[in-house]
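Box S1 | Example of a co-folding query
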Amino acid sequence: MIQLIRGFKDILPDEAGLWQMVEQTAIRLFTDFGFKEIRVPLMEHTELFARSIGEGTDIVEKEMYTFADRKGELLTLRPEATASVARAYIQHKLYAVDPIRKFFTIGPMFRRERPQKGRYRQFYQINAEVYGIDSPLMDAQLIFMLTTLLARLSVPEARAHINSLGCPACRPQFKEALLAFTAEAEDRLCEDCRRRRTQNPLRLLDCKVPTCREAMAGAPALPDFLCDDCRDHFEAVKTGLRDLGVDVVIDKRLVRGLDYYTRTTFEVHAGGLGAQSAVAGGGRYDGLISTLGGPATPAVGFAIGFDRLVEITALSAADHDKRPDIFVAALGEASRAAALKLSSDLSMAGILTEIDFSSKSLKSLMKRADRLQAKFVLMLGESELESGAAMLRNMGTKEQIPVPLENFAARVKEILGEA
Ligand code: HAM
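Box S1 (continued) | Returned holo structure for histidyl-adenosine monophosphate
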């Protein structure tokens, strides 16, 4: 039997109701904050991700699903959405009329990481991105929107960790200090970190290897190197968050696995995720739009790991798995023929109706209605057809009421409304 690809997964119908509810909660909240949906393709030219995320990052170096298509063009299944949204902003000149844009986008991403709990090779993200606003108040509001969503979804122990990564004016001094600090510790660093020293020194700060952690214990911290503008910006983000009542951890060692970030960066960690505790991550990326050939435009955004979110929400999948309002049990050929229209009318009237058109006995139809946890069963046999009224059975109270077939859907709706 052909199985699914390692690190990929199916979202089965029992869970899908919860996924829909999470998605709708996010869409409603983001819409209320002025965000509009943008949908971007699953595949892009490899160069877009290499230039945005950065050549020296784990994602670009080791994790992308890249292949040459039949004409030899290098294409990549998107490992994230930010680069694509930025490309769309530039390509469609979305800045022309109004450079200020707020987008959200939801969908699958692909990274060839080692699969484990909370880490998949196809996973889903809920992204929010803001263009054209450099105010630190926007960063604060964005983090507030994110933590509000997690609270609405009953995510336990969610806590935002924030840091500032500075800007092209102040980061070089920090990198220099970091290189000077690690020059002496080089022989204690893992092989990856020794390579990172020359390619991507910021990543030295979040290596998980214990000897590297030890070696980096007294390393310089980014916030101590910020220029005046970056320091003021960071302070204002913190004040804004305080004003909004968002409790954050200032994490001087927080760096991110993507190169485009400037200034504010953040991650939200939550309980119940084990080693992969980041349920969301994001930050400012004021340089990306111009790097990709667009006009200089400040930007800030985040992505939530949808799979992780569903895994840790205290809401249960069973509560969001919709039960049928009505199970139609039609007995005999003539009744089934009549049930075709009657059941379709019920569905059209917005009543969740289940019918299987089978010639099973009443007993086995009732069994199926029970298994599906139908709220009502509509019984339709020859005698009901003759009398012109079907029997509606409330599966909770066991009460049975005849419902005239004339103007049927409206009558049933009324009864369901009263139940
Ligand atoms: P990221 O930190 O790479 O950021 O991913 C964001 C979130 O996606 C993570 O916190 C995690 O919850 C989830 N995630 C990442 N990889 C996996 C995986 N293999 N399996 C399951 N979940 C995963 C970004 O992608 C940036 N584009 C975020 C951003 C938007 N920054 C600015 N705008």
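Residues 179 and 189 are 13 Å apart (CA to CA). The chain has two domains: 13-170+226-317, 322-418.
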